[in-house]
């Protein structure tokens, strides 16, 4: 079919308006730059994004906090405050698991609630909340916590491809999420698995179950189908789509804002964005990529390989690199086959945090040891005991017996996830630290925080300039000591003192 002018009109003959959620500051950098977007990289384009007319700008998640501290040596609270204040016109959003932040384990309810409250205190006005096993008690509590702080809360449905993840299954989960008092529903296809045909039926089922609530669709382009799936999803009733500026879009990321807006208008939808803001953001990101030697988003080709492993975003490449570091790159295909088998045996968990890590780790252990499930991580034991939630399908009985046969697994039989109070947690760090500091120290090892605070902050100028000037700027920014001398031909520059 042709999608030109295919959108049905409103009853009064006007075009149906589609709203855009911007991912230029969150999922775009997460997909292409490993979340390493410093404040000096994001702040210069914040005003342009704020004035574009996006419904919401996604900004932060707990994993970004860890990356900023460890790799960028930057205080994530300071970045959040600076960026949210620079975008006063637009609602800014954060994402969180319902039962964990950063680690692949489980986080106490008191910490989860404080995390949401502190994000709201620093400008967050919207949340997407995900849980691959749909623990509605945990999701519902965070929905109420966010709403009590004046923020909206949208539970997120993570798409997975299995015999059990049917349209009917997702419609039933949607009805449960609506009953929690949610402000909307988000459907995310992080691995780019959806086909146009499945998108059509799935979104229609979710939209019907959501009733009057808005439905957002957030599809990655790993398999090149996301732009087409967006059109199918909107024709099936979705209200909003997620995009990113072109240099951080496509491939393992989401469709670009530029191309999506053009497609929607050609299809007969109305999109109210200020397109004059697109180019300044794009040019800034291209300079950042050039100056920092970072990749720029590239379109992917359709590949059936994606359905073999179902890993989200760039996780397949990351996983291959980790195997290479361990001298196991030649066993990549073998590990992928084992991952597929482990996922089926564990009840088809969605391949997103923490389950993609659990399945991947168990698969590697099975291959390396040569004896399947002879070594089982604690997190897999906790999963098998049901502490992450009820699997969508039964765990293979033989595998379950093998996992439970170890003394360590038996020790979890009467175990309950710890639920320390905030006062008890504060005692670990002296008892008088602020809420923000408590969250930071629970998220990131203390030594990493100390190193971050001892490292001078980078304030790089990403304005257009020549390669020669950029070279001098980089020398000034990275030089150690109080003396710098540069000489080339007739040019000479000497700097003394602090610079």
TrEMBL record:
One protein family per Pfam = HMGL-like
What lineage is on file? Bacteria, Bacillati, Actinomycetota, Actinomycetes, Pseudonocardiales
Show where the Pyruvate carboxyltransferase domain sits: 18-279
Protein name per UniProt: Carboxyltransferase
**Signal peptide (residue range):** none
